[in-house]
Amino acid sequence: MGAAQPILKYTLAEYLAFEERSEAKHEYYAGEIYAMAGASPSHNRICFKLAGLLDRQLEGSSCVGYSADQKLWIESAQLNTYADLTIVCGHAQFHPDHPTLLTNPRVLFEVLSPSTMSYDRGEKWSFYQQLSSLTDYLLVWQDRPQLEHFSLQADGSWRYVRTVGLEQTVTIASIHSQLSLADVYSGIEFPPPKSPRPPIQIVSE
């Protein structure tokens, strides 16, 4: 689970009691507890922007959003984790014994950070695919205007689309939403692009 190290073997109930007392977030995976990395100011601002944009678009529909504090339970993986933003449509369902653990997200967002990028795009995404309710997974870059969108197709496969540029728009058909990248990244300052190699210096002899 990234660079974090397991603490001890715990029951789910013990983990939840521990998490309730903790100031930091942790994941629970098959009896082990893992610390989650903190977020940068840009990460938090993008999450705030996304939440505001989607909340306005979902108003009046059967879909509602949950913040990054919402626990997500994936029964088949015995995993409790957190997404940066969660959308549920219709009746929200929870673990029968632990009513804080949401089990039926339709759309999940992760804002990518250097420390979590490989996990969010790899192992965590493989866990998310075990959720039968999930139709869309969006990865939002914080150092450039770029969104990666996985959407579930009728044949059970996942369609991948990468959208780049502030002039672009991403459509999430399952919740009748459109996200303008200019709105998502409004007020965000991107770091200057890194040169792929040092410049050539011509030395006169």
Describe the structure.
21% of the residues lie in helices and 29% in strands. By secondary structure, the protein is of the alpha+beta class. The chain has a single domain, classed as tt1808, chain A, CATH 3.90.1570. A hairpin with a 5-residue loop joins strand 10 and strand 11. 23% of the residues are buried. The mean pLDDT is 92.
Give a summary of the structure in a few sentences.
It is built from five helices and 13 strands. The protein has 205 residues and is an alpha+beta fold.
Question: What keyword list fits this structure?
Answer:
5-stranded mixed beta sheet, 205 residues, 13 strands, tt1808, chain A, single chain, 6-stranded mixed beta sheet, 5 helices, alpha+beta, 29% strand
Low-confidence stretches: none
Tell me how many strands there are: 13
Mean pLDDT: 92
Range of strand content: 25-35%
How widely separated are the two ends? 54 Å
- Proper CATH architecture: Alpha-Beta Complex
The CATH class designation is Alpha Beta
Taking all Cα atoms into account, the compactness measure Rg is 19 Å
CATH superfamily (homologous) name: tt1808, chain A
What's the CATH topology name?
tt1808, chain A
Structural class: alpha+beta
**Structural shape:** globular
Strand order of the largest sheet: 3-6-8-9-10-11
